[in-house]
């Protein structure tokens, strides 16, 4: 099984080595059928909430904030971070 989006057959298997007590990777298929992205924007892993964001969502939910308002709060935060980044690169 490869990538869900583009059918890339690249596969890697990670496991904890009991002898060395560290992580090892086996490349099962090292062939990609696409160019590598320069950033993770839009990637499902990059879009996951961090632990502090999850706590904020729980707290806002407990305070009965509507889900759409919680979403808007994160959208505003994202916009502020993008503005800060753009200002720092100019």
Structural class: alpha+beta
Order of helices and strands: EEHH
For the biggest sheet, the summary is: 2 strands, antiparallel
Radius of gyration: 19 Å
**Averaging pLDDT over every residue, what do you get?**
78
* Beta strand %: 15-25%
Summed up, the helix count is 2
Distance between the termini: 43 Å
Count all strands and give the number: 2
List the uncertain runs.
Answer: none
The domain count comes to: 2
The order of strands across the largest sheet is: 1-2
Q: What portion of residues is helical?
A: 25-40%
Shape: extended
Please outline the helices and strands:
Blueprint: E1 11-17, E2 22-29, H1 51-62, H2 67-89
Antiparallel strand pairs: 1-2
Explain how this protein is built.
By secondary structure, the chain is of the alpha+beta class. The chain has 2 domains: 1-40, no CATH class; 49-90. Helix content is 39%, strand content 17%. Strands 1-2 form a two-stranded antiparallel ribbon. The longest helix has 23 residues, at 67-89. The chain is extended, with a radius of gyration of 19 Å. The mean pLDDT is 78.
Brief overview, please?
With 90 residues, this protein is an alpha+beta fold. It has helices spanning 51-62, 67-89, and strands at 11-17, 22-29.
Comma- or semicolon-separated keywords:
single chain, 90 residues, alpha+beta, 2 domains, two-stranded antiparallel ribbon, 2 helices
């Amino acid at each position: 099984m490869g990538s869900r989006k583009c059918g890339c057959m690249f596969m890697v298997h990670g496991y904890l080595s009991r002898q060395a007590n560290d992580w090892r990777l086996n490349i099962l298929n090292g062939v990609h059928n696409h160019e590598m992205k320069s950033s993770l924007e839009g990637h499902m892993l990059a879009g996951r909430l961090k632990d502090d964001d999850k706590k904020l969502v729980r707290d806002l939910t407990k305070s009965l904030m509507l889900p759409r308002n919680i979403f808007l709060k994160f959208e505003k935060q994202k916009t502020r971070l993008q503005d800060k980044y753009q200002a720092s690169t100019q």
